[in-house]
Amino acid sequence: MRNLTAKAAIVLATGALALSGCGSDSQEANTGNDKVTEITVGASPVPHAKILEYINENLAEKNGIKLNIKQFDDYVQPNEALNSKDLDANFFQTKPYLDDQAPKHGWKFTPGKGVHLEPLAIYSSKLKDVNELPEGGKVGIINDPTNQARALNLLAQAGLVEVPASGDVTIHTVKPLKKFEFVEVAGPQLARSLQDVDLAVINGNFAQSAGLAPKKDGLVVESAENNPSVNLLVWREGDANPGIAKLEELLHSPEVKQYIEQTWGNGEVIPAF
């Protein structure tokens, strides 16, 4: 009986060690999986989603994150989706736009640091110079207030309008320096409406989607110097998701800066860091 008991004890001990080993392997695998944090990010197709795709394919896994990228073609839905927790973060907007929209909707969001600038430019399929704008001509301009003010400041730089010294800058408050008609258009439609106007001020991401580039096609291009309209990552206030902090870090990495400079060599996108 003693020998049998001893043998049984050895068998039980061996089995326990085997089970202990299996449990250790499983825990290690789970720990490895826990290190990868999945986050869902909303983005405009170009350049935002392209930059995120570059990160996902080249930098994300080794930095412990995985991105689920959802593309949006407008400037309204990404913030609504972030507020409703359908997204963990979004990457499409500027701080002036966020500052204008958040109080109106009661959104409590936190902006990251500037990643890149997509300079506005004045484009035309009919004219070679803004001074060729005919009397009674048509100028296409975005219809959302923040980007419209930005576009009007570019038209002022081009000598077509004078902006007020204070107060809101809109098509109703500027002073035209030439007789022409403003045509308000939703951002995604601006490039498509280029044939129907003489000039249009088009945001960088919408211009890129239409194959337009500031250095190549722009008649007047927005300056990047001291420009507040840099694009940034945005997330819900107080969100402690470690994946968001890691993505914010990667968006400002040397690899992303190099990717931007090499991918958009015609000045469509300029690193802001």
TrEMBL record:
Main subcellular location: membrane
Name of the protein: Lipoprotein
Keywords assigned: Lipoprotein, Membrane, Palmitate, Signal
GO terms under cellular component: membrane
Lipid-bearing positions (S-diacylglycerol cysteine): C22
Coiled coil: none
Lineage: Bacteria, Bacillati, Actinomycetota, Actinomycetes, Actinomycetales
Protein family (similarity comment): Belongs to the nlpA lipoprotein family.
Organism (species): Boudabousia tangfeifanii
PROSITE patterns: PROKAR_LIPOPROTEIN
Annotated InterPro entries: Lipoprotein_NlpA
